[in-house]
Amino acid sequence: MKDMIAYCGLNCETCDAYLATIHDDQALREKTAKLWAELNQAPILPEHINCRGCRADGVKTVFCEHLCAVRQCALKRGAATCGSCPELENCQTVGAVFANSPDARENLAGL
């Protein structure tokens, strides 16, 4: 479980992209692509919905791999997660995640 907590503290095991990937669920890919395209006003297609987890080896969504500012920052700093960053409490980037998902902060504290 601990390796399935993303850099920001979100639990990848509950992410629809991860679930669609591990269960090879095309209907969930299509549903997730449609929702994410609407939420992000971006052309997200079902074939983009494949991910093995933020910190795990394997395929990631385009967002997670290349666009997620939290992940890019943690990789640049060589941090295991944001929980190990001395700037965590004042970080606006991961703070946005915490505002929408308070469990993320708790997940980081448990690592």
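The record above closes out task 2.4. Task 2.5 opens with a second protein, given below.
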Amino acid sequence: MGKIVGRKKDRSPVKEQTLRHYGQSLDEEFDRILNDEIAIYLIGGSFLIIITVLEWWRWYKSIPPNPLLYSLITLLVIPVLALLIRKKFKQLQKIKQGRKGERFVGQALENLRGL
């Protein structure tokens, strides 16, 4: 047999890219929602609560600023943030279910490959 011209003997036939695992795209989406979107809502809500408590403290100590404006903003924004967080958690549940299904199918297909 002749030699294959232009091919190095010790070169791997596998591409340099690592293979993605089953459900990896949903793992990434899950992490993005949890770490980016929900965290922002929680930080924003916490910030408003801290400002409101500080303003009420200033009012209690007879310091001139009035906390009513901050209280009103907080009372309006917190329910909106709670709804957004609830929506994101529902989205996370769907992603978790899809990820579980992808892994199950991937493992089933992997088992069939051995047959």
